[in-house]
Specification:
The complex is a heterodimer. Chain A is an alpha+beta fold. Chain A has helices spanning 2-25, 33-37, 40-63, and strands spanning 77-84, 87-91, 94-95, 100-107, 112-117, 123-129, 135-140, 145-151, 164-168. In chain A, the strands form two sheets. Chain A has a five-stranded mixed sheet, with no helix packed on it. In chain A, strand 1 (77-84) and strand 2 (87-91) form a beta hairpin. The two termini of chain A are 24 Å apart. Chain B is mainly α. Chain B is built from 17 helices and no strands. At the A-B interface, helix 1, helix 2, helix 3, strand 5 and strand 6 of A face helix 3, helix 9, helix 11, helix 12 and helix 13 of B.
């Protein structure tokens, strides 16, 4: 997903830059305000309602089904992950391919972030590890291998070394 | 001028149109620019360290990171407040010493924060996410964390006084905040005593940032007491909500204050007034509500949060972009079109600022989509978007205000060192931000002192762009400083 997100973002940012560039390039002709103001509110309305429409489509497309609906995961495997400064306690550390795994994540001390990376170094999902709470996230691994666990929330001076692994078979 | 008046004169409101605490405003901008460059150097050091080009122990890295974050937020807030104060004084009667008091409390806070970090070893990040200040892992003492929190409280109290005074002055002039927000025009179409854009924007910022600062002060005091009385504790989820509510509102307020410079200065160049219309009033009322409501997008990875709150975080993040794009940015582009605008450093920087703000919100909005946030949250994607709208947005507006404040009487045009400084700042800033975005797309976690070998290329490219942006900032700041003593304002 990440490369698509990057490309879409950069393209939209370039569109914004082009609009500003175009306006700057066409700023030098001294004309009457009335002429410029002719269709301004019409254009503004078009931009506004166009953005509203895009927003509705994106919202419906990304919130249905609800991204955190772990109850719909079916025949699941449960894994608990507990963060402490600066290590993870993950049980079990071995999970099967093809079955939904529900991660129940918490912390013994401060906020941590439980981020799971595939063997190629791409983040697959994450959730926060918070003392006193259990955040749940479901994921189905499709390939075997060693998946790395990184801490994704700054938790003190060894934050970058709070690493672990999950073995998917 | 108020800054040369006696103490007795300073105790009463100045006349409308006067410039109370003008010297303090200029001092704020100079300090802001200077601190910005120093903090950019710290940022460069962090990127060089991550890229393996500079040896920095993780302990020092995280201290520098804490100073960089707190300092940048403070710099943006101070420069934004200076802009709002300067232009609001044209419409309401402000008491100059309140600004000076805010500035003194700000500087006191800076001293406490720097002492906490570099003398006490505090490295809990500027977000001081509860209960981290009390859990240093044996690295910093409670006294260091207390000094850091007290420093933030000092700065917060200063800004609260600032908002109380600006709010008082607005109410004294317009009767109440709803009139200052333009609600009679918005809801009844009344054209009587319509407040100018500066007043509408200021009133909105006063309401949402006043609330934000009070919530921030509460979680700061709770954290402070918790250091010495661990039994005095709150739910970490509540602490997280309070911290991100405060942090989001406070950093957003910096841009919403700075954009007042665009509303005020650009019309001088285009000859087209920026007036309060029903659309403008509606946009700012929407901004007021959405800035307060949008903060759950910082908690999208806390699934224990109510689902409706997370959905609001996503939806409002998108909606909050509409007033910016369809009102401020759109109106600016229309205002420029065939206007015969006089381009100089000030006008170019201010337009650049709106561009940076608008473009920078795009990756921010995309990051607030839950399914995207799941793989982008707390990666370098996050500094990617906030560097864009702070460096090329808020700070470009601040530099534009500085350039306007010290502009020569004669038409200068856009050339020479100012032109090259702008290009370097803009090019470097875009490069820094886009490199972060690329890092985010590579899944590189943010706030890591040590990077894996496969990540260092983007670190090194980012460092080069950081050098370029620092050169640009130095040129812009140097131009301001050299004109500071004899501004020769038109």
């Amino acid at each position: 997903m990440q490369p698509y997100v990057l490309v879409i973002s950069l393209v939209l940012m370039v569109v914004v830059a082009a609009a500003f560039w175009w306006a700057a390039r066409h700023s030098g002709i001294d004309a009457s305000q009335a002429k410029v103001a002719g269709n301004v509110e019409g254009y503004r309305g078009g931009v506004f309602w166009g953005l509203v429409l895009v927003g509705l489509v994106v919202t419906l497309a990304t919130l249905r089904p609800w991204p955190y609906d772990v109850s719909a995961a079916g025949d699941t495997v449960s894994v608990t992950a507990t963060g402490s400064q600066w290590s993870w306690e993950i049980a079990p550390q071995e999970v099967p391919v093809g079955r939904p795994v529900v991660f129940k994540v918490t912390s013994n001390d401060v906020n941590h972030g439980f981020g799971v990376y595939d063997p190629d170094g791409t983040m697959l999902f994450q959730t926060q590890a918070m003392p006193g709470y259990v955040n749940q996230v479901s994921y189905t691994f499709t390939k075997p291998g060693k998946y790395r666990v990184f801490c994704m929330e700054y938790c003190g001076l060894v934050h970058h070394d709070m690493l672990d692994e999950i073995n998917v078979k | 001028m108020a800054e040369t008046a006696s103490l007795r004169d300073l105790s009463s409101p100045t006349a409308v149109g006067a410039e109370p605490a003008l010297a303090a405003v200029k001092l704020s901008m100079g300090l802001g620019g200077l601190v910005l460059v120093l903090l950019m150097l710290l940022g460069l050091c962090m990127r060089l360290s991550q890229g393996g080009s500079l040896s920095m122990e993780p302990t020092l890295f995280y201290q520098v990171m804490t100073a960089h974050g707190a300092g940048m937020v403070g710099t943006a807030a101070l420069t934004g407040a200076a802009i709002m104060w300067f232009f609001l004084a044209r419409h309401v009667q402000l008491i100059g010493w309140v600004y000076w008091l805010m500035l003194i409390l700000f500087l006191l806070g800076v001293v406490l924060i720097l002492g906490a970090i570099f003398a006490g070893g505090f490295a809990g990040a500027w977000t001081f996410l509860y209960p981290l200040p009390a859990h240093s892992g044996g690295v910093w003492e409670p006294g260091a964390a207390a000094a850091f929190l007290a420093g933030l409280i000092s700065i917060g109290v200063g800004f609260l006084l600032f908002y109380l005074e600006t709010g008082r002055a607005i109410i004294a002039r317009y009767g109440n905040l709803s009139r200052a927000l333009g609600w009679p025009l918005l809801f009844r179409g009344s054209q009587e005593d319509v407040p100018p854009p500066t007043v509408v924007a200021s009133a909105a910022v006063i309401v949402f940032n006043g609330i934000g600062i009070v919530v921030g002060a509460a979680v700061l005091v709770i954290s402070l007491i918790n250091l010495y009385a661990p039994g005095f504790a709150i739910a970490p989820l509540l602490g997280k909500n309070m911290t991100y509510f405060f942090g989001h509102v406070f950093i957003n307020a910096t841009i919403y204050m700075a954009v007042i410079a665009v509303y005020k200065i650009i019309p001088e160049y285009t000859g087209r007034p920026w007036k309060t219309s029903r659309v403008f009033a509606a946009a700012w009322s929407a901004i007021l509500l959405m800035v307060l409501a949008v903060y759950p997008h910082h908690l999208l990875q806390d699934t224990v949060m109510p689902g409706w709150a997370l959905a609001i975080g996503q939806v409002v993040s998108y909606a909050a972009g509409l007033p910016l794009i369809a009102v401020t940015a759109f109106s600016l582009l229309v205002s420029l079109n065939r206007s015969g605008i006089r381009w100089d450093l000030a006008s170019a920087l201010l337009v650049t600022g709106v561009f940076g703000w608008t473009a920078g919100t795009i990756p921010a909005i995309i990051d607030a989509i839950i399914v995207v946030n799941r793989v982008m949250h707390n990666t370098l994607w996050v500094p990617g978007h906030f560097h864009f709208y702070l460096l090329i947005g808020e700070m470009a507006m601040a530099f534009g205000f500085m350039a306007w404040l010290t502009r020569a009487r004669a038409t200068e045009g856009l050339s020479g060192t100012g032109y090259w400084g702008l290009l370097a700042y803009l090019g470097g800033g875009i490069g820094v931000s886009v490199t972060f975005l690329v890092g985010g797309a590579m899944s590189v976690p943010r706030r890591w002192a040590v990077h894996l070998p496969e990540w260092v290329v983007q670190d090194r490219v980012g460092s080069l762009f950081a050098v370029l942006s620092i050169i640009g900032a130095l040129v812009l700041l140097g131009r301001f400083m050299t004109r500071f003593a004899s501004p020769g304002r038109a």
